Amino acid sequence: MRQIKSGFIIVALLALLAACSNDEEKRRYLPMLASNIENEVLVEVINGTRALSPTTLLRDSVFSVFGIESEKSLPVKVSVLEGKEVLSFRADLPDRTLMDLWDTDEGRRGEGYADSEITVQGAHIHLRFYYAFSALPRAELMRGGSTIALQTLEYQGQTINPYKRYGCFKIVLRRTPQGFTVE
After folding, report:
1. What pTM value is reported for the model?
2. Residue 44 contacts residue 172 (beta carbons within 8 Å)
3. Which letter does DSSP use for residue 35 in this model?
4. Which of 63, 76, 88, 94 is close enough to 57 for a disulfide, judged by CB 3.0 to 4.6 Å?
């Protein structure tokens, strides 16, 4: 009986070690953090000249967002901007390995990007969100003093400067006979 227990423990330990060790190192997402994060994206979906109902798009499960860096579906909700319902999600922050950082007299600065894929009515829209980072000198010693914020996005090789107001970053997905455009 004792030999069976010992054998079982050895097999269990070997199985655990085999599961934990992998020839391929798993990629871990380590987002760039700051005390102030501006990564909310508002989305309006338009078919021709008519805005589609955000509530209906979510209810019918025909709108979703996937964060490429985090490898997760991102929560989407309905928000209101200037009296109009829009879809809203928080884009992935850039992974630390995707950040280019440098020091200045005013503190640390940086740029980076994170990719997301929006699926709307079966169409897949790949977007690259560009961020700017800034931190005051010795910001790590303060409760605050650093910001990472969305600046622009790229779609099909073109840079798009979205509508920005009240700290909001709004894009429009417009359905055309060829698919979607991003404005």
Report:
1. 0.82
2. yes
3. S
4. 63
